[in-house]
Amino acid sequence: MSLSPAFLDELRARTLLSAIISPSVKLLRAGREWKARCPFHNEKTPSFTINDEKGFYHCFGCGAHGDAIRFLTDARGLPFMDAVKELAGKAGLEVPAPDPQARERAERTASLTDVMAACQKWFAEQLAGVDGADAREYLKNRGIGPATVARFGIGLAPEGRNKLKSALLHLGEDKLVETGMLIKPDPNEFKGGETYDRFRAG
Ligand SMILES: [Zn+2]
Question: Where are the beta strands (DSSP E) in the chain?
């Protein structure tokens, strides 16, 4: 089930974070914030701060950080939806019914992310392959070593207009167009024009 970001923002805005945390931890006023001994790690002097205006807590000792939902899931062990329901109940908000459109968008985004990952992997393979020798030499001369290439996922777009397209067409031509990996000619300019690789050498 996915909740809209707008609902979660509304929920956070209507929630006083210190009131959610105070039953579990003794809070001390510290200017516009609250301080407490961190519930996430063992400490004698308080390094856990709560900012009600921003709706976030932060621990300078262990780095624990989050909002009211996160506090309930991490400190109290509630499942995400239970945390949302508890906060919504306190705030007098009704948890909206699942939004099928939002879910569809989320799934579509996830699948486009997978398509991009597959393209990146393919470009990296081209750089590592036989045809990548010149490009590897070029990177070497620029002082870009294998570790940097791996870290940034650098790849090579080979010559030709259909190399990526023919290798990854199984991912779906429309998705390759949507991610920008294939160019679809404007039908007003080129009627029936075939899609082709955006990134290509030569
Ligand atoms: Zn801590």
Answer: 28-30, 33-36, 48-51, 56-59, 65-66, 182-183, 196-197
In the reported structure, the alpha carbon of residue 43 is separated from the centroid of ligand 1 by a whole-number distance in angstroms of: 8
Q: Both tokens of residue 105?
A: 């968008």
Query: What distance, in Å, lies between the first and last C-alpha atoms of the chain?
Result: 47
Please provide the size of the chain in residues. Answer: 202
- How are beta strands 48-51 and 28-30 bridged, if at all? unpaired
The label of the residue with tokens 């459109």 reads 101
Per-residue model confidence as pLDDT tens digits over 161-198:
999 999 999 888 989 999 999 999 887 777 778 999 99
Q: Say how many Å lie between the CA of residue 89 and the centre of ligand 1.
A: 28
CATH of 101-197, one of 3.40.50.880, 3.40.50.2300, 3.90.980.10, 2.60.120.560: 3.90.980.10
The model's pTM: 0.51
Q: Tell me, in angstroms, the distance from the centre of ligand 1 to residue 52's CA.
A: 18
Closest of 106, 103, 20 to residue 55, by C-alpha:
20
Report residue 102 as tokens: 């939002």
pLDDT tens string 28-66: 999 999 999 999 999 999 999 999 999 999 999 999 999
**Distance between Cα 138 and ligand 1 center (Å):** 48
